[in-house]
């Protein structure tokens, strides 16, 4: 799997990184925790600049969360809960997950969008309550961009620093990343198989 990610980056450069980060927000099995360190690692080997990696990762991730914002904006909480209950098996999203993200937003207000982008469990779903609350789109993008840039920069720079010693660690990068991805896919399959959504408390907000 790491070879697939690497080849996509090699073939399409920054666009490949942006595409992967976009898909990461739509379909969970290839997470940013794998994509961005590998992109940073490749930047360290001279295949692209670290700046292009950071910009592409941030833009791709932002594009991936916009549909979730408009899902909340146009659908309303009741229909999103029903969607999660029916199709959440494949998205690994339960009504309770929606409630958790909504609770984050209620507690922290607009800052929840920034903070949520730094927390793996709510990174994507925090966009839904932002849409539900009709948070101004420009403000949503601004807060999301700051949080996303910090998240992607941290991951990419970790890979970049490791890449400075790529001759020493190159033999380990493939097996380790494959093991991580296999574990993530296994967890995804487990969640699909054992998915049993419990109805979440609904405050009646449409």
From TrEMBL:
Keyword Membrane: yes
Segments passing through the bilayer: 12-30, 50-71, 137-160, 172-190
Domain VTT as annotated: residue spans: 30-160
Record localization: Cell membrane
Principal subcellular localization: membrane
Cross-referenced InterPro entries: DedA_domain, VTT_dom
Organism: Aureimonas populi
PANTHER family in UniProt: ALKALINE PHOSPHATASE LIKE PROTEIN, UNDECAPRENYL PHOSPHATE TRANSPORTER A
Membrane topology qualifier: Multi-pass membrane protein
Keywords of this entry: Cell membrane, Membrane, Transmembrane, Transmembrane helix
Protein known as: DedA family protein
């Amino acid at each position: 799997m790491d070879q697939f990610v690497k080849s996509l980056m090699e073939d399409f450069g920054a666009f490949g990184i942006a595409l992967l980060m976009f898909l990461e927000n739509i379909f969970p099995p290839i997470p940013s925790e794998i994509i961005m360190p590998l992109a940073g690692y490749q930047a360290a080997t001279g295949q692209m600049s670290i700046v292009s990696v950071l910009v592409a990762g941030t833009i791709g991730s932002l594009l991936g969360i916009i549909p979730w914002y408009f899902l909340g904006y146009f659908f309303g909480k009741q229909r999103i809960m029903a969607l999660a209950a029916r199709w959440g098996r494949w998205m690994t999203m339960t009504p309770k997950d929606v409630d958790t993200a909504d609770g984050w937003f209620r507690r922290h207000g607009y800052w929840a969008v920034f903070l949520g982008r730094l927390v793996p469990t709510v990174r994507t779903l925090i966009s839904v309550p932002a849409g539900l609350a009709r948070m101004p789109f420009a403000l949503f993008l601004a807060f999301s961009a700051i949080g996303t840039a910090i998240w992607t920069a941290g991951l990419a720079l970790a890979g970049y620093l490791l890449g400075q010693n790529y001759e020493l660690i190159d033999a380990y990068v493939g097996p380790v990343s494959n093991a991580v991805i296999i574990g993530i896919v296994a967890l995804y399959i487990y969640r699909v198989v054992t998915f049993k959504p419990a109805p979440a408390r609904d405050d009646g907000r449409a």
